[in-house]
């Protein structure tokens, strides 16, 4: 057994079943070992960045450590964006990368990069280059244990000559050697009793309680429901927490923030008490005015407590266990008038969403696509969205049901994760249906390449149904709107216009199903056809980029900037003004 064989065996002992990566001569030893070891599946992506996205998504959707593999030099560098996505969304990912021979290091050798320095930020908790076979066992073990314990990215660098050396499976018991073991045991982190009592006093005293949940509330859905019922509270969801609670609960107000609902804005604006659970939602303007609400926060990471809002009580603990300890201390609120207000607001909002989706557009209103998709979603499907206006409509128009999974790039908000996220979801759950919601900008940047990955593997999946929904507006639309609303600048066509690519025809070239939809009347039939197809389907929806991304609360500066952009001669000004007036008339945006 050589070092590479031992590494692969050790990964299997850490319960790794799949590795996402791209080959190169800097990892030939490891690739050879994977070829000899049938228990781990190597999934070949089109680009190393996609491998890192898939490892991140695997961690998000399964709770397991995701693993990606890349060669030295350029291959290693390509991993970075996807790894930062994992780091910022607190996902356990181990990156294994190659390096030049030890004897060449320091000589400005071809593809020689100081990889420890390259990865020292993204893998700040643990990055290590193996220089001796005796190290391998403890370096792999530490990388996995730290990734799991800290919910972060770690990196192991293995020079290609080390990969071919004889393995040291059991380091000798001598000074300087480290003999490590396998496994990571879960823990139950609970706040002190007096902190729980202080939190209960605040929550019991509140008359209008708002709850904000994020990804840290996964696994605590029943406890969140119980506490919301006791307190008569409404529950808003940060985008990474979209799938924590279903949207059919009458007190769930949906997303918060610029992409959020008016009901969530009203919840935060009208509350006198805020309970934040497992969220680091960053935008202060969408939280209560400091001083207007008392605050309690629950988070497993003490570094994230009280950094978004000045909380009175900070509870350091796991969400589920902390809520279980807190619930017996709470009193049911008999006055349900606040809850009734919350429920009316969200009911009104869903009507507004439907009205907006059915407004005419040229040619298709993008909201209508997701509005029609939402009730058609299969049970237990897995939704992924890209950054940009695709995330906007995903946040607004998709109603999550119990059992579904959903995610996007939350904190990095990078382009291009939707398709690789969906691919990783399909490998983790071959019988479930993934739906990727992608803008045409992200599709052109890297998404089209991963259609090749889908074409390579789809026939191996138990259920071949897989939807890639492309919102084709021929514009880098989110940035275009940000130019107008944040900078007061008209659309800069040289930077914003992109080609109209025939995505459906490209899919057909790869042996996939492709459907181009240019009229709203064709939406329902196309979605039904895709859900009953015998292979993955790319749905190329030609949509109107002038449908406004109206925030739930429009501040004066945004309105002034939009007006400035129109006065400066935005090329779409006539259509924009017409669409914006229609949107405002439907309600759903306050000033």
Describe the structure in your own words.
- With 591 residues, this protein is an alpha/beta fold.
- Strands 2-1-3-4-6-5 form a six-stranded parallel beta sheet, with helices on both faces. It has a six-stranded parallel beta sheet with strand order 9-8-7-10-11-12, with helices on both faces. It has a six-stranded parallel beta sheet with strand order 14-13-15-16-18-17, sandwiched between helices.
- Helix 1 (3-13) crosses helix 2 (28-36), helix 11 (262-270) runs antiparallel to helix 13 (337-357) and helix 16 packs parallel to helix 17 (440-457).
- The protein is globular and about 70 Å long.
Order of strands in the sheet with most strands: 2-1-3-4-6-5
Uncertain segments: none
Instruction: Specify Rg, calculated over alpha carbons.
Output: 25 Å
What coarse outline follows from CA principal-axis ratios? Answer: globular
Helicity level: 40-55%
Oligomer classification: single chain
Query: For the terminal residues, how far apart are their CA atoms?
Result: 68 Å
């Amino acid at each position: 057994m050589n070092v590479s064989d031992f590494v692969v065996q050790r990964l299997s002992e850490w319960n790794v079943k799949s590795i996402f990566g791209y080959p190169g001569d800097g990892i030939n030893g490891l690739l050879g070992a994977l070829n000899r070891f049938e228990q781990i599946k190597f999934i070949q992506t089109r680009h190393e960045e996609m491998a890192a996205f898939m490892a991140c998504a695997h961690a998000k959707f399964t709770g397991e450590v995701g693993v990606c593999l890349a060669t030295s030099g350029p291959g290693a560098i390509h991993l970075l964006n996807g790894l930062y996505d994992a780091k910022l969304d607190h996902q356990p990912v181990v990156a294994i990368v190659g390096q030049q021979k030890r004897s060449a290091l320091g000589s400005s050798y071809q593809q020689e990069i100081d990889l420890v320095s390259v990865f020292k930020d993204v893998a700040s908790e643990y990055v290590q280059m193996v220089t001796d076979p005796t190290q391998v066992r403890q370096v792999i073990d530490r990388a996995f244990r730290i990734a799991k314990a800290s919910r972060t990215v770690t990196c192991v660098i293995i020079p290609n000559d080390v990969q071919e050396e004889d393995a040291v499976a059991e380091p000798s018991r001598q000074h300087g050697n480290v003999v490590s073991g396998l496994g990571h045991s879960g823990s139950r982190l609970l706040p002190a009793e007096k902190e729980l009592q202080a939190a209960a006093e605040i929550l019991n005293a509140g008359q209008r309680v708002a709850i904000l949940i994020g990804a840290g509330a996964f696994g605590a859905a029943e406890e969140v429901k119980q506490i919301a019922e006791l307190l008569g509270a409404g529950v808003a969801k940060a985008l990474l927490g979209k799938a924590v609670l279903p949207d059919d609960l009458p007190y769930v107000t949906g997303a918060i923030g610029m992409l959020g609902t008016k009901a969530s804005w009203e919840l935060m604006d009208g509350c006198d008490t805020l309970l934040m659970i497992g969220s680091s939602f960053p935008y202060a303007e969408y939280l209560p005015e400091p001083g207007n609400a008392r605050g309690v926060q629950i988070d497993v990471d003490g570094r994230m407590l009280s950094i978004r809002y000045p909380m009175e009580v900070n509870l350091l603990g796991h969400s589920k266990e902390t809520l279980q300890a807190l619930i017996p201390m709470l009193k049911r609120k008999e006055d349900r008038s606040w809850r009734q207000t919350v429920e009316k607001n969200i009911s009104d909002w869903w009507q507004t969403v439907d009205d907006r989706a059915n407004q005419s557009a040229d040619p298709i209103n993008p909201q209508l696509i997701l509005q029609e998709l939402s009730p058609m979603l299969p049970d237990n499907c897995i939704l992924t969205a890209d950054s940009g206006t695709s995330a906007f409509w995903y946040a607004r128009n998709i109603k999550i049901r119990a059992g579904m999974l959903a995610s996007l790039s939350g904190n990095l908000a990078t382009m291009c994760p939707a398709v690789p996220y969906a691919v990783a979801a399909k490998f983790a759950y071959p019988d479930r249906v993934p739906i990727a919601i992608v803008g045409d900008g992200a599709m052109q940047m890297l998404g089209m390449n991963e259609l090749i990955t889908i074409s390579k593997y789809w026939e191996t999946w138990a259920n071949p149904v897989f939807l890639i929904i492309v919102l084709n507006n021929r514009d880098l639309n989110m940035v275009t709107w940000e130019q107008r609303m944040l900078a007061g600048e008209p659309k800069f066509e040289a930077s914003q216009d992109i080609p109209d690519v025939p995505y459906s025809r490209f899919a057909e070239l790869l042996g996939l199903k492709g459907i181009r939809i240019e009229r709203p009347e064709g939406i329902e039939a196309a979605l039904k056809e895709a859900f009953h197809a015998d292979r993955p389907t790319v749905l190329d929806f030609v949509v109107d980029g002038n449908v406004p991304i109206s925030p739930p609360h429009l501040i004066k500066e945004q309105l002034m900037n939009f007006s400035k952009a129109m006065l400066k001669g935005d090329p779409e000004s006539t259509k924009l003004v017409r669409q914006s007036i229609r949107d405002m008339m439907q309600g759903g945006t306050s000033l």
